[in-house]
Amino acid sequence: MTEKTFIYASAPTEYIEVDGIRYAYRKSGDPGATPLVCLQHFTGTLDNWDPIIVDGLAKERQVILIDNTGVGNSEGKTPDNAQDMGKDAIKVIRALGISKCDLLGFSLGGFLAQVMVDLEPQLFRKLIIVGSAPQGAKALHSFPQLVEKAFALPPKEQYLFVFATASEKSRAKIGATLGRLFIRDEDRDKNASMEAIKAQISALTRWGTDPVTINLSKITQPVLIVQGSNDEMMDSSASIDLYKAIPNAVLVFYPDSAHGSFNQYPELFTDQANSFLNKFE
Amino acid sequence: MTEKTFIYASAPTEYIEVDGIRYAYRKSGDPGATPLVCLQHFTGTLDNWDPIIVDGLAKERQVILIDNTGVGNSEGKTPDNAQDMGKDAIKVIRALGISKCDLLGFSLGGFLAQVMVDLEPQLFRKLIIVGSAPQGAKALHSFPQLVEKAFALPPKEQYLFVFATASEKSRAKIGATLGRLFIRDEDRDKNASMEAIKAQISALTRWGTDPVTINLSKITQPVLIVQGSNDEMMDSSASIDLYKAIPNAVLVFYPDSAHGSFNQYPELFTDQANSFLNKFE
Protein backbone atom coordinates (compact mmCIF):
# COMPACT_ATOMS: atom_id res chain seq x y z
CA MET A 1 0.00 0.00 0.00
CA THR A 2 1.35 3.39 -0.96
CA GLU A 3 1.71 5.85 1.90
CA LYS A 4 -0.48 8.93 1.47
CA THR A 5 1.64 12.04 0.84
CA PHE A 6 0.94 15.55 2.05
CA ILE A 7 1.93 19.14 1.50
CA TYR A 8 2.82 21.58 4.28
CA ALA A 9 -0.70 22.95 4.74
CA SER A 10 -2.38 19.58 5.10
CA ALA A 11 0.26 17.30 6.65
CA PRO A 12 -1.30 15.96 9.86
CA THR A 13 0.68 16.20 13.06
CA GLU A 14 1.76 12.65 13.92
CA TYR A 15 3.21 11.31 17.14
CA ILE A 16 5.80 8.73 18.12
CA GLU A 17 6.81 7.62 21.62
CA VAL A 18 10.49 7.38 22.55
CA ASP A 19 11.59 6.44 26.10
CA GLY A 20 8.08 7.22 27.33
CA ILE A 21 8.05 10.70 25.77
CA ARG A 22 5.62 11.57 22.95
CA TYR A 23 7.21 13.51 20.05
CA ALA A 24 5.27 15.48 17.41
CA TYR A 25 6.31 15.46 13.75
CA ARG A 26 4.91 16.05 10.26
CA LYS A 27 5.79 14.40 6.96
CA SER A 28 5.40 15.88 3.47
CA GLY A 29 6.35 14.43 0.09
CA ASP A 30 6.82 10.93 -1.28
CA PRO A 31 9.03 8.60 0.74
CA GLY A 32 12.19 8.09 -1.28
CA ALA A 33 15.62 6.69 -0.60
CA THR A 34 16.73 9.51 1.68
CA PRO A 35 14.30 11.63 3.71
CA LEU A 36 15.24 15.13 4.88
CA VAL A 37 14.80 15.70 8.62
CA CYS A 38 14.42 19.36 9.67
CA LEU A 39 15.38 20.79 13.06
CA GLN A 40 14.08 24.16 14.08
CA HIS A 41 15.42 27.45 15.47
CA PHE A 42 15.08 28.91 18.99
CA THR A 43 11.36 28.96 19.99
CA GLY A 44 10.41 27.50 16.59
CA THR A 45 7.81 24.75 16.22
CA LEU A 46 6.34 22.72 13.35
CA ASP A 47 4.43 25.87 12.37
CA ASN A 48 7.56 27.99 11.91
CA TRP A 49 8.84 26.39 8.70
CA ASP A 50 8.29 28.26 5.44
CA PRO A 51 5.66 26.41 3.35
CA ILE A 52 7.39 27.46 0.09
CA ILE A 53 10.60 25.76 1.22
CA VAL A 54 9.03 22.63 2.72
CA ASP A 55 6.79 22.05 -0.30
CA GLY A 56 9.64 22.87 -2.72
CA LEU A 57 11.94 20.36 -1.07
CA ALA A 58 9.14 17.79 -0.63
CA LYS A 59 8.60 17.72 -4.41
CA GLU A 60 11.85 15.77 -4.68
CA ARG A 61 12.00 13.85 -1.35
CA GLN A 62 10.18 13.21 1.90
CA VAL A 63 10.55 16.08 4.38
CA ILE A 64 10.10 15.33 8.08
CA LEU A 65 9.68 18.23 10.53
CA ILE A 66 10.33 17.32 14.16
CA ASP A 67 9.50 19.12 17.41
CA ASN A 68 12.39 18.30 19.72
CA THR A 69 11.95 17.41 23.41
CA GLY A 70 9.58 19.72 25.28
CA VAL A 71 8.94 21.99 22.27
CA GLY A 72 5.48 22.58 20.76
CA ASN A 73 3.42 19.40 20.94
CA SER A 74 6.39 17.24 21.96
CA GLU A 75 6.45 16.22 25.59
CA GLY A 76 9.39 16.03 27.98
CA LYS A 77 11.82 18.46 29.52
CA THR A 78 13.86 20.50 27.04
CA PRO A 79 17.58 19.94 27.71
CA ASP A 80 19.68 22.99 28.51
CA ASN A 81 22.45 22.03 26.06
CA ALA A 82 22.77 21.18 22.37
CA GLN A 83 24.48 17.84 23.00
CA ASP A 84 21.48 16.35 24.83
CA MET A 85 19.08 17.94 22.32
CA GLY A 86 21.04 16.24 19.53
CA LYS A 87 20.90 12.89 21.31
CA ASP A 88 17.12 13.21 21.65
CA ALA A 89 16.71 14.04 17.95
CA ILE A 90 18.78 10.98 16.99
CA LYS A 91 16.49 8.79 19.11
CA VAL A 92 13.42 10.20 17.34
CA ILE A 93 14.99 9.59 13.91
CA ARG A 94 15.83 6.00 14.91
CA ALA A 95 12.31 5.46 16.29
CA LEU A 96 10.89 6.58 12.93
CA GLY A 97 12.73 3.64 11.38
CA ILE A 98 15.22 5.81 9.50
CA SER A 99 18.67 4.31 8.90
CA LYS A 100 20.01 7.11 6.67
CA CYS A 101 18.74 10.67 6.17
CA ASP A 102 19.69 14.19 5.19
CA LEU A 103 19.49 16.82 7.89
CA LEU A 104 18.51 20.49 7.69
CA GLY A 105 19.33 22.44 10.85
CA PHE A 106 18.29 26.07 11.15
CA SER A 107 20.11 28.19 13.78
CA LEU A 108 19.89 26.13 17.03
CA GLY A 109 18.97 23.22 14.73
CA GLY A 110 22.32 23.77 13.01
CA PHE A 111 24.10 23.26 16.33
CA LEU A 112 22.22 19.99 16.72
CA ALA A 113 23.19 18.95 13.19
CA GLN A 114 26.86 19.35 14.15
CA VAL A 115 26.35 17.36 17.37
CA MET A 116 24.42 14.61 15.59
CA VAL A 117 26.83 14.07 12.68
CA ASP A 118 29.64 13.95 15.23
CA LEU A 119 27.81 11.34 17.36
CA GLU A 120 26.41 9.15 14.57
CA PRO A 121 28.11 9.92 11.26
CA GLN A 122 26.72 6.81 9.55
CA LEU A 123 23.13 8.02 10.06
CA PHE A 124 23.53 11.11 7.85
CA ARG A 125 24.11 11.43 4.12
CA LYS A 126 24.21 15.23 3.66
CA LEU A 127 23.66 18.28 5.88
CA ILE A 128 22.19 21.72 5.30
CA ILE A 129 23.07 24.25 7.99
CA VAL A 130 21.26 27.59 7.82
CA GLY A 131 22.00 30.66 9.95
CA SER A 132 24.16 28.82 12.42
CA ALA A 133 27.62 28.85 13.98
CA PRO A 134 30.40 26.55 15.21
CA GLN A 135 30.96 25.88 18.92
CA GLY A 136 32.67 28.79 20.62
CA ALA A 137 31.12 31.43 18.33
CA LYS A 138 31.53 34.76 20.10
CA ALA A 139 28.21 36.29 18.98
CA LEU A 140 26.42 33.80 21.24
CA HIS A 141 27.99 35.35 24.33
CA SER A 142 25.44 38.15 24.03
CA PHE A 143 22.50 35.95 23.01
CA PRO A 144 20.46 36.55 26.20
CA GLN A 145 20.70 40.33 25.70
CA LEU A 146 19.51 40.04 22.08
CA VAL A 147 16.59 37.85 23.17
CA GLU A 148 15.60 40.33 25.88
CA LYS A 149 15.60 43.11 23.28
CA ALA A 150 13.49 41.00 20.90
CA PHE A 151 10.98 39.89 23.54
CA ALA A 152 10.29 43.53 24.47
CA LEU A 153 8.81 44.09 20.98
CA PRO A 154 5.26 43.35 19.73
CA PRO A 155 5.01 39.97 17.89
CA LYS A 156 5.45 41.11 14.27
CA GLU A 157 8.29 43.50 15.14
CA GLN A 158 9.91 40.72 17.17
CA TYR A 159 9.88 38.46 14.11
CA LEU A 160 11.28 41.21 11.87
CA PHE A 161 13.93 42.16 14.45
CA VAL A 162 15.31 38.62 14.43
CA PHE A 163 14.83 37.56 10.81
CA ALA A 164 15.00 40.75 8.69
CA THR A 165 17.48 43.57 8.19
CA ALA A 166 16.36 47.18 8.63
CA SER A 167 15.81 47.62 4.86
CA GLU A 168 12.29 47.95 3.50
CA LYS A 169 12.88 45.13 1.04
CA SER A 170 14.07 42.68 3.68
CA ARG A 171 11.26 43.63 6.08
CA ALA A 172 8.66 43.18 3.33
CA LYS A 173 9.99 39.76 2.34
CA ILE A 174 10.26 38.52 5.92
CA GLY A 175 6.83 40.01 6.63
CA ALA A 176 5.56 37.79 3.80
CA THR A 177 7.28 34.77 5.40
CA LEU A 178 5.51 35.53 8.66
CA GLY A 179 2.20 35.60 6.78
CA ARG A 180 2.94 32.19 5.25
CA LEU A 181 3.40 30.67 8.71
CA PHE A 182 -0.37 30.95 9.18
CA ILE A 183 -1.27 28.94 6.08
CA ARG A 184 -2.55 26.21 8.42
CA ASP A 185 -5.78 27.02 10.25
CA GLU A 186 -6.20 23.73 12.04
CA ASP A 187 -4.01 21.14 13.75
CA ARG A 188 -1.53 23.86 14.64
CA ASP A 189 1.36 23.32 17.03
CA LYS A 190 1.56 24.74 20.56
CA ASN A 191 3.89 27.69 21.01
CA ALA A 192 7.12 26.92 22.84
CA SER A 193 6.62 27.11 26.61
CA MET A 194 8.58 29.53 28.77
CA GLU A 195 10.36 26.52 30.30
CA ALA A 196 11.49 25.31 26.86
CA ILE A 197 12.56 28.82 25.89
CA LYS A 198 14.70 29.18 29.02
CA ALA A 199 16.38 25.84 28.37
CA GLN A 200 17.04 26.85 24.74
CA ILE A 201 18.57 30.17 25.78
CA SER A 202 20.93 28.19 28.00
CA ALA A 203 21.78 25.81 25.13
CA LEU A 204 22.39 28.70 22.70
CA THR A 205 24.58 30.63 25.12
CA ARG A 206 26.52 27.53 26.14
CA TRP A 207 27.25 26.76 22.46
CA GLY A 208 29.35 29.93 22.52
CA THR A 209 30.96 29.52 25.94
CA ASP A 210 31.32 25.77 26.66
CA PRO A 211 34.53 24.00 25.56
CA VAL A 212 34.75 23.02 21.89
CA THR A 213 34.24 19.24 21.64
CA ILE A 214 33.40 18.68 17.96
CA ASN A 215 36.16 18.41 15.37
CA LEU A 216 34.48 19.85 12.27
CA SER A 217 37.40 18.81 10.06
CA LYS A 218 36.31 15.17 10.59
CA ILE A 219 32.92 15.68 8.94
CA THR A 220 33.04 13.71 5.70
CA GLN A 221 29.48 14.46 4.58
CA PRO A 222 28.75 17.13 1.99
CA VAL A 223 27.43 20.21 3.81
CA LEU A 224 25.53 23.19 2.41
CA ILE A 225 25.97 26.28 4.60
CA VAL A 226 23.53 29.14 4.06
CA GLN A 227 23.56 32.55 5.71
CA GLY A 228 22.38 36.14 5.35
CA SER A 229 24.70 39.10 4.91
CA ASN A 230 23.78 40.71 8.25
CA ASP A 231 22.75 38.12 10.80
CA GLU A 232 23.17 39.67 14.25
CA MET A 233 21.90 36.63 16.15
CA MET A 234 24.71 34.37 14.96
CA ASP A 235 27.09 36.85 13.35
CA SER A 236 27.27 36.13 9.62
CA SER A 237 31.02 35.55 9.71
CA ALA A 238 30.48 32.43 11.85
CA SER A 239 29.22 30.70 8.70
CA ILE A 240 32.51 31.47 6.94
CA ASP A 241 34.25 29.85 9.92
CA LEU A 242 32.01 26.79 9.56
CA TYR A 243 32.74 26.65 5.81
CA LYS A 244 36.49 26.83 6.36
CA ALA A 245 36.42 24.14 9.06
CA ILE A 246 34.25 21.56 7.23
CA PRO A 247 36.18 19.88 4.38
CA ASN A 248 33.39 19.31 1.83
CA ALA A 249 31.17 22.35 2.29
CA VAL A 250 29.42 24.67 -0.15
CA LEU A 251 28.84 28.18 1.22
CA VAL A 252 26.01 30.45 0.11
CA PHE A 253 25.40 34.01 1.29
CA TYR A 254 22.31 36.03 0.36
CA PRO A 255 22.24 39.84 0.14
CA ASP A 256 20.60 42.31 2.52
CA SER A 257 19.38 39.55 4.81
CA ALA A 258 19.58 38.63 8.48
CA HIS A 259 18.79 35.49 10.47
CA GLY A 260 15.95 34.64 8.07
CA SER A 261 18.25 34.29 5.04
CA PHE A 262 16.52 31.30 3.45
CA ASN A 263 13.06 32.60 4.30
CA GLN A 264 13.86 35.81 2.45
CA TYR A 265 14.84 33.94 -0.75
CA PRO A 266 12.72 30.78 -0.49
CA GLU A 267 12.66 29.92 -4.21
CA LEU A 268 16.41 30.41 -4.66
CA PHE A 269 17.16 28.43 -1.51
CA THR A 270 14.84 25.61 -2.55
CA ASP A 271 16.57 25.33 -5.95
CA GLN A 272 20.01 25.40 -4.35
CA ALA A 273 19.09 22.87 -1.67
CA ASN A 274 17.45 20.48 -4.16
CA SER A 275 20.44 20.72 -6.51
CA PHE A 276 22.82 20.13 -3.59
CA LEU A 277 20.84 17.17 -2.23
CA ASN A 278 20.35 15.61 -5.67
CA LYS A 279 23.73 16.20 -7.31
CA PHE A 280 26.55 17.32 -5.06
CA GLU A 281 29.08 14.71 -3.92
CA MET B 1 12.33 32.35 -39.98
CA THR B 2 13.59 30.74 -36.79
CA GLU B 3 17.30 31.07 -36.15
CA LYS B 4 19.07 27.71 -36.06
CA THR B 5 20.30 26.89 -32.57
CA PHE B 6 23.46 25.07 -31.63
CA ILE B 7 25.16 23.33 -28.76
CA TYR B 8 28.75 23.98 -27.69
CA ALA B 9 30.31 21.25 -29.85
CA SER B 10 28.67 22.33 -33.08
CA ALA B 11 28.22 26.12 -32.74
CA PRO B 12 30.03 27.64 -35.73
CA THR B 13 32.50 30.45 -35.12
CA GLU B 14 30.87 33.61 -36.43
CA TYR B 15 32.40 37.01 -37.07
CA ILE B 16 31.32 40.61 -36.75
CA GLU B 17 33.24 43.75 -37.69
CA VAL B 18 33.47 46.66 -35.25
CA ASP B 19 35.56 49.78 -36.04
CA GLY B 20 37.34 47.83 -38.79
CA ILE B 21 38.26 44.97 -36.45
CA ARG B 22 36.86 41.47 -36.95
CA TYR B 23 35.62 39.76 -33.75
CA ALA B 24 34.99 36.02 -33.34
CA TYR B 25 32.04 34.70 -31.34
CA ARG B 26 29.81 31.64 -30.97
CA LYS B 27 26.14 31.36 -30.07
CA SER B 28 24.36 28.40 -28.44
CA GLY B 29 20.75 28.01 -27.39
CA ASP B 30 17.47 29.60 -28.43
CA PRO B 31 17.40 33.38 -28.61
CA GLY B 32 15.18 34.55 -25.77
CA ALA B 33 14.51 37.83 -24.05
CA THR B 34 17.93 38.12 -22.44
CA PRO B 35 21.06 36.49 -23.86
CA LEU B 36 24.04 35.68 -21.63
CA VAL B 37 27.36 37.08 -22.90
CA CYS B 38 30.49 35.31 -21.59
CA LEU B 39 33.92 36.89 -21.19
CA GLN B 40 36.92 34.69 -20.72
CA HIS B 41 39.92 34.35 -18.40
CA PHE B 42 43.59 35.18 -19.03
CA THR B 43 44.76 33.40 -22.23
CA GLY B 44 41.31 31.84 -22.64
CA THR B 45 39.54 31.61 -26.00
CA LEU B 46 36.20 30.33 -27.29
CA ASP B 47 37.57 26.81 -26.79
CA ASN B 48 38.22 27.29 -23.06
CA TRP B 49 34.61 27.27 -21.87
CA ASP B 50 33.28 24.12 -20.23
CA PRO B 51 30.76 22.43 -22.57
CA ILE B 52 28.70 21.15 -19.61
CA ILE B 53 28.23 24.72 -18.39
CA VAL B 54 27.61 26.36 -21.77
CA ASP B 55 25.11 23.70 -22.84
CA GLY B 56 23.47 23.68 -19.39
CA LEU B 57 22.97 27.44 -19.48
CA ALA B 58 21.99 27.42 -23.18
CA LYS B 59 19.05 25.11 -22.40
CA GLU B 60 17.32 28.10 -20.83
CA ARG B 61 18.71 31.07 -22.80
CA GLN B 62 21.03 32.06 -25.64
CA VAL B 63 24.69 31.97 -24.62
CA ILE B 64 27.16 34.09 -26.59
CA LEU B 65 30.90 33.47 -26.17
CA ILE B 66 33.12 36.34 -27.34
CA ASP B 67 36.83 36.54 -28.10
CA ASN B 68 37.84 40.03 -27.03
CA THR B 69 40.23 42.24 -29.04
CA GLY B 70 43.35 40.44 -30.27
CA VAL B 71 42.45 37.14 -28.58
CA GLY B 72 41.97 33.85 -30.47
CA ASN B 73 40.35 34.50 -33.85
CA SER B 74 39.52 38.12 -33.00
CA GLU B 75 41.70 40.71 -34.70
CA GLY B 76 43.18 43.91 -33.27
CA LYS B 77 45.65 44.83 -30.59
CA THR B 78 44.78 43.59 -27.11
CA PRO B 79 44.58 46.58 -24.71
CA ASP B 80 46.90 46.56 -21.69
CA ASN B 81 44.11 47.49 -19.27
CA ALA B 82 40.69 46.21 -18.27
CA GLN B 83 38.94 49.54 -18.92
CA ASP B 84 39.74 49.50 -22.64
CA MET B 85 39.00 45.78 -22.86
CA GLY B 86 35.59 46.45 -21.32
CA LYS B 87 34.90 49.27 -23.80
CA ASP B 88 35.73 46.91 -26.68
CA ALA B 89 33.42 44.20 -25.35
CA ILE B 90 30.57 46.73 -25.04
CA LYS B 91 31.09 47.70 -28.70
CA VAL B 92 30.87 44.06 -29.76
CA ILE B 93 27.67 43.54 -27.74
CA ARG B 94 26.15 46.66 -29.34
CA ALA B 95 27.23 45.53 -32.81
CA LEU B 96 25.45 42.21 -32.23
CA GLY B 97 22.23 44.21 -31.86
CA ILE B 98 21.88 43.50 -28.15
CA SER B 99 20.16 46.17 -26.05
CA LYS B 100 20.01 44.18 -22.78
CA CYS B 101 21.95 41.10 -21.72
CA ASP B 102 23.28 39.14 -18.77
CA LEU B 103 27.04 38.94 -18.40
CA LEU B 104 29.24 36.11 -17.14
CA GLY B 105 32.82 37.20 -16.51
CA PHE B 106 35.41 34.62 -15.48
CA SER B 107 38.59 35.94 -13.78
CA LEU B 108 39.88 38.72 -16.12
CA GLY B 109 36.37 38.59 -17.65
CA GLY B 110 35.05 39.42 -14.17
CA PHE B 111 37.14 42.61 -14.13
CA LEU B 112 35.59 43.54 -17.48
CA ALA B 113 32.11 42.84 -16.13
CA GLN B 114 32.75 45.39 -13.35
CA VAL B 115 34.07 47.95 -15.86
CA MET B 116 31.18 47.38 -18.26
CA VAL B 117 28.34 47.64 -15.73
CA ASP B 118 29.99 50.81 -14.43
CA LEU B 119 30.20 52.32 -17.94
CA GLU B 120 26.82 51.22 -19.30
CA PRO B 121 24.55 50.05 -16.47
CA GLN B 122 21.44 50.07 -18.66
CA LEU B 123 22.93 47.42 -20.97
CA PHE B 124 23.07 44.71 -18.30
CA ARG B 125 20.30 42.90 -16.45
CA LYS B 126 22.29 40.52 -14.19
CA LEU B 127 25.96 39.61 -13.71
CA ILE B 128 27.78 36.41 -12.83
CA ILE B 129 31.36 36.94 -11.67
CA VAL B 130 33.47 33.80 -11.24
CA GLY B 131 36.98 33.61 -9.76
CA SER B 132 37.53 37.35 -9.84
CA ALA B 133 38.44 40.31 -7.64
CA PRO B 134 37.70 44.00 -7.11
CA GLN B 135 40.13 46.71 -8.24
CA GLY B 136 43.07 47.02 -5.91
CA ALA B 137 43.09 43.31 -4.96
CA LYS B 138 46.48 42.59 -3.44
CA ALA B 139 46.88 39.06 -4.85
CA LEU B 140 47.29 40.59 -8.31
CA HIS B 141 50.49 42.34 -7.28
CA SER B 142 52.24 38.99 -7.66
CA PHE B 143 50.37 37.89 -10.80
CA PRO B 144 53.44 37.99 -13.12
CA GLN B 145 55.36 35.68 -10.75
CA LEU B 146 52.46 33.20 -10.65
CA VAL B 147 52.24 33.23 -14.45
CA GLU B 148 55.98 32.64 -14.77
CA LYS B 149 55.68 29.66 -12.43
CA ALA B 150 52.72 28.28 -14.43
CA PHE B 151 54.35 28.78 -17.84
CA ALA B 152 57.39 26.75 -16.73
CA LEU B 153 55.15 23.64 -16.45
CA PRO B 154 54.05 21.21 -19.20
CA PRO B 155 50.56 22.01 -20.59
CA LYS B 156 48.40 19.69 -18.46
CA GLU B 157 50.27 20.54 -15.25
CA GLN B 158 49.98 24.22 -16.14
CA TYR B 159 46.20 23.86 -16.37
CA LEU B 160 46.03 21.95 -13.08
CA PHE B 161 48.36 24.44 -11.35
CA VAL B 162 46.02 27.30 -12.17
CA PHE B 163 42.60 25.68 -11.93
CA ALA B 164 42.91 22.81 -9.39
CA THR B 165 44.02 22.46 -5.79
CA ALA B 166 46.70 19.93 -4.88
CA SER B 167 44.11 17.32 -3.84
CA GLU B 168 43.58 14.21 -5.97
CA LYS B 169 39.85 14.89 -6.20
CA SER B 170 40.29 18.45 -7.44
CA ARG B 171 43.01 17.44 -9.91
CA ALA B 172 40.84 14.62 -11.29
CA LYS B 173 37.82 16.89 -11.73
CA ILE B 174 39.81 19.69 -13.37
CA GLY B 175 41.62 17.09 -15.50
CA ALA B 176 38.17 16.07 -16.73
CA THR B 177 37.38 19.74 -17.52
CA LEU B 178 40.56 19.93 -19.57
CA GLY B 179 39.47 16.85 -21.50
CA ARG B 180 36.08 18.43 -22.24
CA LEU B 181 37.79 21.47 -23.82
CA PHE B 182 38.70 19.22 -26.79
CA ILE B 183 35.12 18.17 -27.52
CA ARG B 184 35.39 20.19 -30.76
CA ASP B 185 37.64 18.72 -33.43
CA GLU B 186 37.04 21.30 -36.10
CA ASP B 187 36.57 25.05 -36.34
CA ARG B 188 38.70 25.52 -33.26
CA ASP B 189 39.95 28.87 -32.07
CA LYS B 190 43.55 30.06 -32.32
CA ASN B 191 45.50 30.05 -29.07
CA ALA B 192 46.13 33.48 -27.55
CA SER B 193 49.23 35.07 -29.07
CA MET B 194 52.24 36.05 -26.96
CA GLU B 195 51.39 39.70 -27.69
CA ALA B 196 47.85 39.26 -26.34
CA ILE B 197 49.16 37.38 -23.31
CA LYS B 198 51.62 40.18 -22.46
CA ALA B 199 48.88 42.80 -22.72
CA GLN B 200 46.61 40.68 -20.51
CA ILE B 201 49.32 40.28 -17.86
CA SER B 202 49.60 44.05 -17.80
CA ALA B 203 45.80 44.41 -17.48
CA LEU B 204 45.64 41.84 -14.67
CA THR B 205 48.52 43.37 -12.72
CA ARG B 206 47.19 46.91 -13.19
CA TRP B 207 43.79 45.82 -11.81
CA GLY B 208 45.60 45.31 -8.52
CA THR B 209 47.84 48.39 -8.60
CA ASP B 210 46.04 51.16 -10.54
CA PRO B 211 43.79 53.57 -8.63
CA VAL B 212 40.30 52.31 -7.80
CA THR B 213 37.80 54.04 -10.11
CA ILE B 214 34.69 51.87 -9.87
CA ASN B 215 32.22 52.33 -7.02
CA LEU B 216 30.88 48.81 -6.55
CA SER B 217 28.23 50.04 -4.10
CA LYS B 218 26.49 51.74 -7.05
CA ILE B 219 25.85 48.45 -8.88
CA THR B 220 22.08 47.95 -8.78
CA GLN B 221 22.02 44.72 -10.79
CA PRO B 222 21.73 41.33 -9.08
CA VAL B 223 25.18 39.72 -9.08
CA LEU B 224 26.11 36.07 -8.50
CA ILE B 225 29.69 35.75 -7.22
CA VAL B 226 31.29 32.30 -7.42
CA GLN B 227 34.68 31.24 -6.11
CA GLY B 228 36.73 28.25 -5.00
CA SER B 229 38.00 27.75 -1.47
CA ASN B 230 41.69 28.02 -2.43
CA ASP B 231 42.16 30.26 -5.46
CA GLU B 232 45.77 31.47 -5.42
CA MET B 233 45.49 33.44 -8.67
CA MET B 234 42.89 35.87 -7.28
CA ASP B 235 42.96 35.04 -3.56
CA SER B 236 39.58 33.56 -2.61
CA SER B 237 38.92 36.27 -0.02
CA ALA B 238 38.71 38.87 -2.81
CA SER B 239 35.30 37.40 -3.68
CA ILE B 240 34.11 38.05 -0.13
CA ASP B 241 35.25 41.66 -0.62
CA LEU B 242 33.28 41.83 -3.88
CA TYR B 243 30.21 40.37 -2.15
CA LYS B 244 30.40 42.87 0.69
CA ALA B 245 30.83 45.81 -1.69
CA ILE B 246 28.03 44.98 -4.15
CA PRO B 247 24.58 45.63 -2.62
CA ASN B 248 22.51 42.87 -4.26
CA ALA B 249 24.97 39.99 -4.53
CA VAL B 250 24.67 36.27 -3.83
CA LEU B 251 27.96 34.63 -2.87
CA VAL B 252 28.78 30.97 -3.50
CA PHE B 253 31.97 29.16 -2.46
CA TYR B 254 32.78 25.60 -3.48
CA PRO B 255 34.97 23.24 -1.42
CA ASP B 256 38.52 22.08 -2.17
CA SER B 257 38.72 24.14 -5.35
CA ALA B 258 40.98 26.75 -6.89
CA HIS B 259 40.67 29.14 -9.85
CA GLY B 260 38.56 26.59 -11.74
CA SER B 261 35.75 26.59 -9.13
CA PHE B 262 32.83 26.40 -11.55
CA ASN B 263 34.63 23.95 -13.83
CA GLN B 264 35.09 21.61 -10.87
CA TYR B 265 31.35 21.59 -10.06
CA PRO B 266 29.79 22.23 -13.48
CA GLU B 267 26.37 20.70 -12.78
CA LEU B 268 25.96 22.49 -9.45
CA PHE B 269 27.13 25.79 -10.94
CA THR B 270 24.78 25.42 -13.91
CA ASP B 271 21.80 24.82 -11.61
CA GLN B 272 22.76 27.77 -9.42
CA ALA B 273 23.36 30.09 -12.37
CA ASN B 274 20.10 29.13 -14.11
CA SER B 275 18.15 29.57 -10.88
CA PHE B 276 19.82 32.95 -10.28
CA LEU B 277 19.24 34.17 -13.86
CA ASN B 278 15.63 32.92 -13.94
CA LYS B 279 14.39 33.80 -10.47
CA PHE B 280 16.58 36.10 -8.40
CA GLU B 281 15.57 39.75 -8.19
Automatic annotation (TrEMBL), chains A, B:
Leader sequence residues: none
Source taxon at top rank: Bacteria
PANTHER family reported in the protein's UniProt record: MONOACYLGLYCEROL LIPASE, MONOACYLGLYCEROL LIPASE ABHD6
GO MF, one example: hydrolase activity
InterPro entries per the UniProt record, alphabetical: AB_hydrolase_1, AB_hydrolase_fold, AB_hydrolase_sf
Keywords, in A-Z order: Hydrolase
Lineage: Bacteria, Pseudomonadati, Bacteroidota, Sphingobacteriia, Sphingobacteriales
Coiled coil stretches, renumbered: none
Pfam families the UniProt entry points to: Abhydrolase_1
Protein name: Alpha/beta fold hydrolase
Positions of the AB hydrolase-1 domain: 35-262
Species in which this protein is naturally found: Mucilaginibacter lutimaris
